[in-house]
Write a structure and sequence with these properties.
Layout: H1 2-28, H2 32-53, H3 62-77, H4 80-97, H5 102-109, H6 122-146, H7 151-168, H8 172-177, H9 179-205, H10 210-224, H11 228-247, H12 253-271, H13 274-280, H14 288-306, H15 309-323, H16 334-350, H17 353-359, H18 365-394, H19 401-434, H20 442-452, H21 454-469, E1 475-478, H22 500-508, E2 513-516
Parallel strand pairs: 1-2
Length: 517
């Protein structure tokens, strides 16, 4: 009997002190707050090598050709106003000679090295920082402010989206480390996110003050003066929100009509620039109908390519969190949600149309970067659309019996679900690190360059080049880089001093000629 009593006491003690704590810990694994903390920590750790390697960054290619006029103004006057005037003059020159992207060219001309070589690394911090801000702002505004879900859910979705976008972007050097390419695409894509989510909130609530309207008009003019992909996407979104306001008889219809008109006019100012005709002469354009049809073909091909195991794991991971977002005023039958899915894919497909129409190709890696970003966002939007469809069809919006059944399933199987997804994600990430035929994740590539010393070596050699270029000699011969880090090296000068990059570098440093040894 005493032995039985001792066993019972031990069992009760274990149940209260050990098993109880295990159950308490397992319940924490099911909370949104826990996963928000884990995702933010993972994102922060993964970005450390990316930010660190940015300290070794240097100008390349178009940075020199677009920045020379502003650099002359800064060196001669050290006056910000005169430098801005020079940048505006560069916009005027390029508008008539090469391209109409007035907003982007102005920023091209003000690349950080204009004010000193030591400032160029700030560009990576600015672009990456603003992209992170835009992603979190987008999902917080959409999920918290529009659908009234917990802010922790918004941060989980934003964190996963940011991880997938940054780590697996097709061309990270063109996305965050080359000023000309990153400001033209990633920066303007980020502006589009801010504009789009604010428009959605304004239409959702049917209110837009004069100050907000002024902000919309300013951003519309800026985005329309950027790259043609984000400009076209913003046009489409503005039309969509205007039609939505019109169909639901919102009071802001007139303000949206003004915004649409300004967006269209600014977009036409960009498209009809005389310089675009000059540039187009170097390419063979496609028939518009052919470009639109092939856009769907390319969208399908890239959907298959970019829906990688890690992206799938990310979407599966987000399912319980998106399920907790109230669908609010969203309603409709099966056909309505299928229509939305079709519109989402068409929106993605339209991002291929500008380059296919212009020169019959999908374009460079910097263009593919924002298309990949868009695809990640489309995947999240499509998943939420399916969640809304299921909730509507099976009556799971409120606290009914179906909702309680699903809650019990989540409480019972949530921990093994998350454990399985995390294990699969870790496996897929590890495979991408070890496989020779797959590009490293951005953080891994940065860490390899930092640990091997090639980033520091590239930085030293770049500084030696700058010393020679800032010297008194008018004809400069430079030694080729001994290493070319994946996230830092973009394009170099050639042995031919008449190569366009050589001539741009020579103008930037006011030399007669620059050549590679």
């Amino acid at each position: 009997m005493p032995e039985n009593a001792l066993c019972v006491s031990a069992f009760l003690w274990y149940h209260r002190n050990v098993q109880g704590k295990e159950l308490e810990w397992m319940q924490k694994l099911l909370t949104v707050k826990f996963w928000r903390f884990m995702i933010i920590i993972l994102l922060a750790i993964s970005l450390l090598p990316v930010f660190w390697i940015g300290l070794y960054n240097h100008s390349s290619a178009d940075d020199y050709s677009y920045g020379c006029m502003a650099r002359y103004a800064w060196l001669n006057t050290h006056n910000i106003l005169e430098t801005l005037k020079a940048a505006a003059e560069k916009v005027r020159q390029i508008y008539f000679e090469w391209q109409g992207s007035y907003g982007a060219v102005f920023l091209f001309a003000l690349q950080p090295a204009v004010f000193g070589e030591q400032f160029y690394p700030l560009g990576s911090f600015l672009i990456l920082g603003f992209f992170l801000f835009a992603v979190f702002y987008f999902f917080r505004k959409a999920i918290r402010d529009v659908f009234h879900a917990n802010v922790h859910i918004a941060d989980v979705v934003a964190g996963v989206a940011a991880l997938l976008c940054i780590q697996m972007m097709p061309a990270p050097v063109e996305g965050f480390f080359w000023w000309n390419g990153s400001i033209y695409y990633v920066f303007f894509y980020s502006l589009m996110l801010v504009q789009a989510v604010n428009l959605m909130a304004a239409v959702w609530y049917g209110h837009c003050g004069l100050g907000q309207l002024a902000g919309f008009l300013l951003l519309a003019a800026a985005i329309a003066g950027g790259n043609y992909i984000t400009a076209l996407l913003m046009m489409e979104l503005t039309v969509f929100f205007f039609v939505w306001a019109l169909a639901t008889k919102k009071r802001i219809m007139k303000k949206l009509a003004l915004l649409l008109a300004v967006t269209l006019v600014c977009f036409l100012v960009n498209c009809l620039a005389p310089g675009n005709a000059v540039r187009q002469g170097a390419f063979e354009s496609w028939n518009p109908i052919r470009a639109v049809l092939y856009s769907y073909h390319e969208a399908y091909n890239h959907m298959v390519e970019w829906t990688s195991p890690l992206v799938v794991a990310g979407m599966v991971f987000l399912l319980p969190f998106l399920w907790q977002v109230p669908i609010g005023k969203l309603s409709g039958g099966f056909g309505t949600f299928v229509l939305f899915l079709g519109m989402e894919f068409s929106f993605f497909a339209s991002s291929f149309t500008p380059t296919l129409y212009t020169y019959g190709d999908v374009g460079a890696g910097r263009i593919q970067n924002i298309r990949y970003f868009l695809w990640v966002f489309i995947c999240i939007a499509a998943e939420f659309t399916l969640v809304c469809l299921i909730k509507t069809m099976f009556g799971c919006q409120g606290e009914g019996s179906n909702f309680r059944v699903l809650r019990n399933v989540y409480n019972r199987y949530g921990v093994p679900f998350f454990a399985s997804v995390v294990f699969c994600a870790a496996f897929f990430a590890g495979n991408s690190i070890l496989a020779d035929d797959v590009r490293d994740l951005a953080s891994i590539s940065a860490a390899k360059s930092l640990l091997s010393g090639e980033a520091a070596q590239y930085h030293r050699e770049a500084k030696e080049r700058i010393s020679l270029l800032q010297g008194e000699g008018m004809s400069v011969e430079l030694t080729p880089f001994s290493c070319k880090p994946e996230l830092l090296f973009w394009e170099d000068i050639k042995e031919d001093p008449d190569d366009w990059v050589n001539r741009a570098v020579a103008r930037f440093y006011q030399k007669e000629e620059v050549r590679l040894r």
